[in-house]
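P.,

For your records, the input lines for the assembly:
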Amino acid sequence: MDPLHFTQQMNRRDFLQQSGCALGAVAASMLGASGTSQAATSQVSSPARAKRVIYMFQSGAPTQIELFDYKPNLRDIEMSELPDDVRMGQRLTGMTANQNKFPVVASKFDFAQHGESGTWISELLPHTAGIVDDMSLVRSVHTDAINHDPAITFCQTGSQLAGRPSMGAWVAYGLGTANRDLPTFMVLLSRGTGRAAGQPLYDRLWGSGVLSSRYQGVKLRSGEEPVLYLANPAGCDTNTRRQMLDQIRDLNLQKFEAAHDPEILTRIEQYELAFRMQTTVPDLTDISDEPEHILDLYGPDVRTPGTYARNCLLARRMAERDVRFIQLYHMGWDHHDNLPDHLTKQCSDTDQPSAALVTDLKQRGLLDDTLIIWGGEFGRTVYSQGKVTDTTYGRDHHPRCFSMWLAGGGIRPGQVYGTTDDFSYNVVENPVHINDLNATILHCLGLDHERLSVKYQGLDVRLTGVEEHSPVQGILA
Amino acid sequence: MDFGRDVMPVLAERCFACHGPDAAQRKADLRLDLEAEAKKTVLVPGDAGASELVRRISSSDPDVRMPPPESNQEPLSQDQITSIRSWIEDGAPWANHWSYESIERPSLPSSSTEDWARNPIDHFVLARLDQAGLQPSPEASRETLIRRLSLDLTGLPPTLEMVDAFLADESDATYEKIVDRLLDSADYGEHMASDWLDGARYADTNGYQNDFKRNMWPWRDWVIKAFNANVPFDQFAVEQLAGDLLPNATDEQRIATGFNRNNRANTEGGSIEEEWRVENLVDRVETTGTVFLGLSIGCARCHDHKYDPISQVEFYEFMGFFNSTADKGFYQETRGNAGPSVSLPTYENQLRLAEFDQTIDVVKAEVDALNDARPFAYMAWRGRLRDRRENSLEPEAAFTYALDDPSKVAEPLITTEGLTGPAVQFDGSPEAQLELGQSVALDRAEPFTISVWVRPQGAGAVFSRMDDASANRGIDVLISKDKEISVHLVNAWPDNAIKVISDARLKTGTWSHICVTYDGSSKAEGVHVFVNGSLATLKTEKDALSETIDTKAPLRIGSRSSGEHFKGAITDFRFYAEVLDADAIRALVDTKLQTALTVAASSAANKRIEDLFHLQYEYEVKARGDHLSAVRKERFDYVKESVPTVMVMKELDKPRPTYRLNRGAYDAPDLTRELQPGVPAFLPELPEDAPQNRLGLARWLVSPDNPLTARVAVNRYWQMIFGRGLVKTTEDFGFQGAPPTHPELLDWLATDFVESAWDVKGLLKRIVTSATYRQSSDLNELLLSSDPAGALYASAPRYRMRAEVLRDNALAVSGLLARRIGGPSVKPYQPEGLWEELAGGAGEGPYKVSEGDDLYRRSLYTYRKRTVPPPTLTTFDSPGWDLCRVRRGRTNTPLQALALLNDVTYAEAARSLAERMISEGGSDDDPRIVHGFRLATGRRPTTNELKVLRAGLDGYSETYAAKPDAAAAVIAVGASSPANDIQADHLAAFTALASVILNLDESITRE
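Structure tokens returned:
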């Protein structure tokens, strides 16, 4: 199915199928329920274990060595040169390619085993340690890209280059929406305290690429206007707005009588949806109905709009309202220097709220059909970038192995998957390529990653690219 | 059965993946894309039953059935199988893919209602309608037609004067005249450029990581100019692809090549040059292939194309045309343009640059003269000094202390040899100091000059009257370790003081003259330091003196009250209660030296004088040289900041070798075989005498033999007007693309286009004067069921305006639109914080909204930041300009409703339209409403519509009469001021009504 053609045809065809029905039935645009997913029903392959996704993306690339991939042996060989047979001549970024030494540095932070699974977790993540029995910790993720922009783009779209649909757009396209009053795919951003002027993000990360723009993510903003142009202009109250919309509808209907263009009916319904969103979105973002113990669960930052903690709570509220794909981005993980200090701050931003979200969903029975993913665009090198002192060091980009965790719908709980070598440099067992991971995510939603595709310029565009990739059975429940 | 329409697309889509051009993926050694191969094995022409192909596609046995289950493909539909069967029964007539066949001018078909036809286009459309048993729709109303023409050709609505004139005269001549007028208006070029920019992925930023600004708008302006000048399309193409390679290429032709510098450019630290150079090349191949050839060449980057006959090697041969340009893949110039570029100084720039150049010439001549004279300078100077007369005007010093009387010198001070007599040697110890009581009076309002000769060995105070114990109250002249001279004038250090440092450095062990002047202004700029008679450049470290510097501390030579004990020799201290000018100071130096020369008896004394001269001379050379560098730097900065440039293509002197890249990876070239630039074999060959470079490629693209370029171009213009192409997949004319709905019409237009010397305006005029174009866009049950996609043109298309037109239309209707062509991109309203949310402290910083007219310029001038594209445009389906796009989607979403109702752009437009309704529409409400409605839709409202509008206005009037605060808020929207001669509640009510009008489906729709 050609997506652009599909877009142009959609409303007119809906109208034909439903002519004679009430106006509302024609509303099959980005918010509408059933109409959008016609193209995708044949792409549903396996029973869906998850109805929705919350992707907690940690932008800038968190270090696996200090957080998840426990390498006690590194302390014994601290400051020794990374052996050539480990590095194997693999490419480095331009930032460390000219270093003449590659001294190994061990984690400055201790690890301990947690839960019935006995999973090793860093002391920086005490709350995450409390949910290890709910998650599959994958220590063997690897990716193709070595710089931020292409790597984040790759994680989210399956291509290092701009122009492909993002994962949320694919899911919106494949499954349609599950609610009538909110967008299908919503995005929340927060800035880390660890490295305030960190790596930027890009609209394309939640763009729809070659799919119709109706599938693109709607970014929820932390200010007074959570969705662009949501608030009426000054001096226009709800009553006046309602009067205006009634008039617009009356006049559009008169036009429809003359022109018979079903697009006019769709437009009428979009205006009604817009009006409803002016209520449903503030209702979503207004957390005054949350009890104290829930706020406490997410930690003190939850009381500040725009923080990661607040976004985690909003993610739960979106999940309750059946937003299909909920994408969080937390920035500030790019620790080329001063890693111990920056990392501690990033962990204090994210540890408690991330764990709280899992706990909160679980206690509401929502974890079973919500898929949670936590991770960044690549890992970090075992060798230090720049000078090592008693208190500080840095790590460069490392695409060959890094850690992510998944929990909830469709995921096998309480296990560690994949192994890296003694230097956390190469995967030695059960590698998980980003495209395998993305295939797994689609699989949990009941989508076959090879069939969820559109033709564009002669190519079958897919989230997981053209190479062979498959869902990772080892992390599926 | 039509092979091209009914059979080939099915084979291509369902079979080619394994039985097509891609050798690596080919199964069973079977090709279905070539007639001979297919007929050798699985096809028996005339006998479907005996054809293996038919057995395979119709089998229900999963082991036999094609495509096989593991391909994840559904079996072929019954219709498809039937088509293929009957095609084989008919003898399986084969043909090349339609778009790869050369274009022949088709003859006009005949049809039932030929008197409807106005030009050849209509014959083709009618023939197709006949086939479908449909009739064309009646002609649209005059109001609709004039609005349609104006929006289609200029992207702006007609003025009411134009509408009235068009209504008054319904002759065909008038119609044609208005078409000519629209095509000749400058608005036309802007509108056409706006569409062209999508394919050229034009934007104002680099697109990666921090996404800094670049400067490509001069290229955009070139496009506008080219369209307005109706540059023939072949020339338009050649100049954009290879203008730099044309003989005696002009700046304009080089600017045109910005087309292929519009790609994104990576500036992320740590990136690998070759990786991104290859990505840029791939982007250029894909863009060129899509825009001009309608081919998805990029698919063959990693492997042979799966559908179209383009091998991987051919992809890299095509890439070879672009492989030898001088631009880089990854550049460190994160801000602004990276070369090669063309500089485009404005008139003002040129004046300023001429000034710079003149100053540089003068200073450079001075430096050269100094350097040239160096070998003879000392002797010349000596000669001049000898001949110099005594300066009778030498000023009277208020206080002098010669330091040349050995009897006054006590241990540890000792007497040493000065230039003209004895001097005092200080050893840097605390004991070595000379106190001279209250001999000079100093305060901040009193001008003075201090003159002294020194021969430094270390640091310390040459002179002071300063009380270190009371916050350094007083004054001193210090020589630093680096032999820089600093001067302090202090009330209380560090908050109430002046401190300046000279850049001139004294030379250890050599006599120098220091002179400090102060004009009593209490300002740092009132302090000057002369070294050996030359004014030194001063750096101001403190400039905050506002109270007295008077102190009881005595005048000291060689130290302060505690510390700063000087090491070196000092002589001839003088104090003047006035500011000596530069000549007088020079005279002090010269007189001394003149004396020195006359008294110099020993060769050592001569040497001292010569050293001093050279020190001074070098200082002079350096000072002039520094000045020259400073002016040059200033010029450089000015050029960088203020002179626009545009990035262009430039060929390297020595071409880079081109190789196939294994799996498309930059670091996996197949070095066994060097490739030459070339075009795919299924298309006509590059002429033998053509240069094997971009120019050769460009000329090949627009040669009459090329089957694709003209078809692709006319299809894109058809799409601009009708909302969809005759080939719906504007970007893909290959096997996977949609077949043309009117193949003969497409070919007729293409041949006509080429024969008319690629006349774009002529083509558009042909289209918009057709009867097909002039139909009504009203639909009915029959049309909806028999031509749901509108692909047969039984009616005119009706579609929501594209993003740019939508906003420009609202600005024009409301009278806000600022009409100025070209120039740097502008920043209209955008919700606050959008850039910061994504980029934080990185990148360009916050979005700074433009001021004045720049808020209301046409949308093609809106600043395009790739990573955060402007929401006024993207909400309405504009692409993000990361990649070449030649077709936009057209969605209908609640976010669009929110934008049109609430964005300040449209809220302000509503108020402005309300003002027009009131001021231009007459004195009663009804004519005012009619006026606003006409401005927005081009027509008068019906009685019923007017009734609804009238009732609305009454409601809003009541609301705002009761709520003056709300009324004031409504009309205060936006940066422009509301009309002050209209009562606020009245204007607010009309504003609400104007907003309703602007939000009507009809107001945002091209009918």
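Two observations worth noting. The longest helix of chain A spans residues 339-363. DSSP finds twelve helices and 17 strands in chain A.

Regards
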